[in-house]
Design brief:
The chain is of the alpha/beta class and 613 residues long. It is built from 21 helices and 26 strands. Helix 1 packs antiparallel against helix 2 and helix 10 runs antiparallel to helix 18. The chain binds 6-O-phosphono-alpha-D-glucopyranose.
Length: 613
């Protein structure tokens, strides 16, 4: 989603800003822009499309020899919400006088009424955005003190923001603030970098400060002063980024997605390392902050998340029921606070989010906290808002995930949920021996995934046979049902093939009407309880002319005979089978999208981190 970069220091700002935006490209966006101050004037360059177009535009605006003269500026990648991704709607936006420039992530919910008020005072707006209203509001409040003007304007704003603001009247200074949309400040030697995501900072420095909600900072090349919106100074700790910059490179793979699929054995090992106790037949998850007694007292587990993280939650639901005899349910994070979630103090709410910044999941965390539930985060990004607001939880250790389509975070989420369910199971029904057996199953996950990845060439060949299909149906039962949903999501998001996931039994209650000669059905028919019924559903599809790609257990000849093509998954526990099966579907989606020439790492319209509702 939208990205912010600000720079102030001794180097040429335009190229640093553009490089920073490149590092944020993975988040998904559709236009870009930057603003600097030159000869007492704000100069803006913007372009629809990719950062490379902005870079060309900037080169036209400032000949190279002038680049080095500019030592600070702000830049933005925009994921369109209010108004299409045109040049005029791209950020930065100026105030009425043209002296103040602003970049903004988030949404100003009351922008219509603010705009009407400003228009009545004679303000003229050029764009359709909510952001331009905020820049005018700041200009309207400006009385010789930019910090105060931003403060005053933010007091009138409803909604979410991460912003960076400059003014020609106060050179050598950037004002930045956040509410619900992250801002990180990188502390360099005689330079400060502002960004919405640490990825834009790590080539400059590892030392960072994360702003909290309602923090507003005055940033210069060698100072950072943070206050709250009532002008009271606040102290924020300096943290060290634990981020290997090679993670932001493709490392010889054609796409980040393919690299991240291949990284899974390693990321899964990292997620599991030190967390299984074979002696006790349990898992060691200190971040959960619970004693066995707390766990025994938990009545119900509620899992919330969005997109792929919602799907891992659906697998978690099966795991908590099967392993821990605990009532578990998944709720869409986006609905959570708008219905009346029946939550009590004996409920454990697990918020699942790779980025830890998804607006709907964060709002669900706040609602669950309000209702007194025991709330935990399951995040990948260390220091992210959800991780910090939940205060307890488990990091995935999947490593940075750059591709918009989530792969390694998903398999790590499922693995960590299995470990949580194991721990809870041991406080309830699981014997030590049963716990030990399941811990061994979890330990084997990275090797199982390796065996699937070894079939990469075979899966690419299978993909060739189906890449021209325009529709696909994924079916599965038990814990493989959520995997069918996730397989369909992966395929549609990167290949743009219309794909739907169904419980195998549901297909005949409607969707079967869509089957005709050659329709692709991907049947998750691993040898787990219910397989025979899934094979029956496959026969129903075949009888209507569908072509069947079966995901089956290695050596299952009975299942193989029914299918047109197969991908084999090593035999394992049904809950564990979800992981290698999902990896096979990731590879299938990847190869189909690649054959179709799609832009795999940054699919159209999608964003990596969705910080608006
Ligand atoms: C976006 C991404 C998805 C992701 C979802 C939830 O839609 O494109 O890949 O699953 O957000 O993100 P989160 O960071 O909360 O897991």
């Amino acid at each position: 989603m939208c990205g912010i970069v600000g720079y102030i220091g001794k180097s040429a700002a335009p190229s640093i800003l553009i490089n920073g935006l490149r590092r944020l490209e993975y988040r998904g966006y559709d236009s870009a822009g930057l603003a600097i101050v030159e000869d007492g004037k704000i100069i803006v360059a913007k372009a629809p499309g990719k950062v490379v177009s902005l870079s060309d535009r900037a080169r036209d605006t400032w000949p190279t020899e002038r680049f080095s003269q500019v030592s600070y500026g702000i830049a933005h990648t925009r994921w369109a919400t209010h108004g299409p991704p045109t040049e005029v709607n791209a950020h930065p936006h100026l105030d009425q006088s043209g002296d103040i420039a602003l970049v903004h992530n988030g949404i100003i919910e009351n922008y219509r009424s603010l705009r009407a008020r400003l228009e009545a005072k004679g303000h003229l707006f050029l764009s359709e955005t909510d952001t331009e209203v905020l820049s005018h509001l700041i200009g309207d409040r400006y009385d010789g003190n930019l910090f105060q003007a931003v403060c005053d304007a933010l007091h009138q704003v409803e909604g979410t923001f991460g912003i960076a603001v400059i003014s020609v009247k106060e050179p050598g200074k950037i004002i930045t603030a956040r509410r619900g949309s992250p801002i990180v400040l990188g502390i360099g030697e005689g330079e400060t970098i502002i960004a919405s995501d640490a990825a834009a900072i790590l080539t400059h420095t590892q030392r960072v400060i994360y702003l909290d909600d309602n923090d507003i900072a005055i940033v210069t090349a060698d100072s950072i002063e943070i206050r709250d919106l009532h002008n009271v100074p606040v102290n924020r700790e300096v943290a060290e980024l634990d981020f290997d910059s090679s993670a932001a490179e493709k490392g010889g793979f054609a796409h980040f997605m393919l690299k991240e699929i291949h990284e899974q054995p390693e990321s899964l090992r990292n997620a599991i390392r030190g967390r299984l106790d074979f002696n006790l037949g349990s898992s060691v998850l200190s971040g959960m902050g619970t004693s066995p007694r707390d766990l025994a007292e938990i009545n119900r587990v509620v899992l919330v998340g969005c997109g792929t993280s919602l799907h891992s939650g659906l697998i978690g639901e099966y795991a908590f029921e099967d392993l821990a005899d605990t009532h578990a349910e998944v709720q869409q994070a986006a609905e959570f606070r708008y219905r009346n979630p029946i939550i009590s103090r004996s409920d454990l709410v697990i918020a699942i989010s790779q980025s830890g910044e998804t607006a709907d999941t964060l709002a669900a965390v706040r609602e669950a906290n309000q209702k007194g539930a025991f709330v935990m985060g399951l995040c990948n990004v260390v220091g992210s808002t959800i991780a910090r607001e939940t205060g307890r939880g488990i990091y995935l250790h999947a490593g940075p995930e750059i591709s918009v389509a989530s792969t390694k975070a998903f398999t790590c989420q499922v693995t960590v949920l299995l470990m949580m369910a194991l721990k809870m199971g041991r406080s309830r029904r699981f014997s030590r021996q049963e716990g030990m057996d399941f811990a061994r199953q979890i330990e084997a996950i990275p090797a199982l995934v390796e065996q699937v990845i070894l079939q990469n060439d075979h899966i690419a060949a299978v993909a060739e046979r189906y890449a021209k299909n325009e529709h696909a149906f994924f079916i599965g039962r038990g814990p493989l049902y959520p995997v069918a949903l996730e397989g369909a999501l992966k395929l549609k998001e990167i290949s743009y093939i219309h794909a739907e996931g169904y419980h195998a039994a549901e297909l005949k209650h409607g969707p079967i009407a869509l089957l005709e000669n050659g329709t692709l059905v991907i049947a998750l028919a691993n040898d787990i309880p219910g397989k025979d019924k899934t094979l029956g559903n496959v026969e129903e599809c075949k009888a209507r002319g569908a072509r069947i790609l079966g995901i089956i257990t290695a050596g299952d000849h009975e299942a193989a005979e029914i299918m047109d093509d197969v991908i084999e998954i090593p035999a394992c526990h049904p809950l564990v089978a979800t992981i290698p099966t999902a990896v096979a579907l990731q590879l299938l989606a990847y190869h189909i999208a690649n054959i179709r020439g799609c832009e795999i790492d940054q699919p159209r319209n999608l964003a990596k981190s969705v910080t608006v509702e």
